[in-house]
Amino acid sequence: MASADSTITLDREENFDTTAEREAALNRLRRFAELLDSAFTVPGTNFEMGLEGIVGLLPGVGDFASAIVSLYVPFEAIRMGAPYAKVAQMLLNILIDALLGSVPLIGDLFDVAFKANNRNVRLLEEHLGRSPEEPA
Question: What is the pTM of this model?
Fold first, then answer.
């Protein structure tokens, strides 16, 4: 539960007064991950990419900027009570995505295929006992 002064605590699940609030947060994370990793289908293929794949094309700053934005998922996972080992796995996914994505050309292809944000949301769903297909 958030304190009276509306400060956010990281005291495991205390930031959500109701299950509905938790479900709404999970739905936001799903949309966020989809926007970054799989919002667009490349015409004539089944290949999906998102804003992260486009931003990652910017030399020097694209992958760093994407990694910073991607930290939103593990931050919310902490607020939703995910164990620190699961959060560490999410952070490792972001680190792998950023480091390998920064390799010119090949890294851009890796970045689009790896989809760290979608992976991290699936990790959170596993913790919450939900499948990605299960409606909120």
Answer: 0.79
